[in-house]
Structure formats: structure tokens, C-alpha cells
Design brief:
2 helices; globular; three-stranded antiparallel sheet; 17% helix; five-stranded mixed sheet
Length: 133
């Protein structure tokens, strides 16, 4: 039976359970029109209430790509001349989680945190921890 795309997926990392989802969104301009594609990966520590969600945001920009239709897959994010990941792959999600943890994210903090995903991308795609720039 195929997985329902809107249902959160489970990820266990270092004996901790997370639920994760990906979604595509847009910022709205002053007239309410959608502009600026964004791909958002959300990781929520479990059980519920034990930590705030982490939102890793990949916003479209020069030298970057996020899914916005063909020819890209729905979870593809990357640099036009460099690293790329598919946010539907559990290994990519785990690599981004590890990079965020290396940068200091603490899952037990109860507040939601939003991080720019681009500084995490190279480390996650290479499989090495994120360096402090």
C-alpha cells in the first residue's frame, strides 16, 4: 500500500523519535500573490510536547533550486553548481538533522526554530558535520 504523502514520517536518530514532513510554500507579496518558492522540512521531536519543531527552509534564489514543477522532483533542493538533496529521502533528512545538531540545535528546547537550510546543505550532502563558518 502506498504511503500517504501528507502523513508525517518517522525517523529515529540517536534513540530519539522525530516525525518529519516536507512541504512547498510561497511568500506572499503586498498584493497577496504567491512569490518566492520555498521548500520546508519540519522535524518534530516525539513524544509530543518534549521539544519544539525544527523547520529547515530552502528558499529559491540565485544559484539555488527548489521544486517548482518539471523537470525537478518534488523534494529536490540544491545548488546549481554543487550539492543537492531530495527531502523525501530519509537519509537526506537524517543528514540535515545531524548538520542542525552539529550547529547547536537542541531538540529538547520547547520553542519552534526556523533555520536557513542552505548553510546545512553542503555538510548534509557530503555526510560530514556542519562546520561553524
Amino acid at each position: 500500500m502506498p504511503r500517504r504523502a501528507k502523513n508525517p514520517r518517522r525517523l529515529v536518530a540517536d534513540s530519539r523519535l522525530y516525525l518529519w514532513t516536507t512541504r512547498h510554500s510561497h511568500r506572499r507579496d503586498e498584493d497577496g500573490r504567491p512569490v518566492d518558492c520555498r521548500q520546508v522540512l519540519t522535524l518534530t521531536p516525539q513524544p509530543s510536547g518534549t521539544g519544539g519543531p525544527l523547520r529547515i527552509v530552502f528558499a529559491d534564489g540565485p544559484g539555488r533550486y527548489v521544486p517548482g514543477g518539471a523537470p525537478l522532483g518534488s523534494g529536490d533542493v540544491g545548488l546549481t553548481a554543487g550539492a543537492h538533496l531530495n527531502l523525501h529521502e530519509p537519509g537526506a533528512v537524517r543528514a540535515l538533522l545531524d548538520a542542525a545538531l552539529a550547529r547547536g540545535w537542541q531538540p529538547e528546547e520547547r520553542r519552534a526554530l526556523e533555520l536557513d537550510g542552505w548553510p546545512l546543505l553542503e555538510a548534509a550532502a557530503s555526510g560530514s558535520p556542519a562546520d561553524d563558518d
